Amino acid sequence: MSPSAAFEIAELADLTIDQLVAKFEVVHQEKCRSRNRNFIVRRIAWRIQAKEDGGLSERALLRAGPIADESVIRVTPPKPKVGGDVVRTKMPPNWDPRIPPPGSFVERRYKGKIRRVLILTDGFEYEDERFDSLSAVAKSITGNHLSGFRFFKLGEHT
Hints:
6 strands, DUF2924, alpha+beta, 2 domains, four-stranded antiparallel beta sheet, about 160 residues
């Protein structure tokens, strides 16, 4: 890489995000749809190096075309996964932020065994039994009255 190209790439670190977007649009001749600084810097640096080195060879471009045509490109996000009888949806109103969304699992190793609890919209399920609270699940597992949040280490700052 020439010193001028290296200098031009090094200067990208000093630009604001708006300046990077403008430079991206000039270099790539297309609208920048990202505000991710690292992504934009890498794409600009790649284009600077490609211009200097001549880009991909014609042989590489001819080979890449059929490969790109055969690739599967996802246009829409994947459908929510089903967990038990609950489909992951947006959070119910008044949902405790310490609890993962419905359809998720919380796990804890206790006495050498993994204890896995399914989060439902209206409670919890552990070993095919439904519970109203995590504390009830923790009591079922340990036999003691414990805080379910503390037992499953939910809401703790690490």
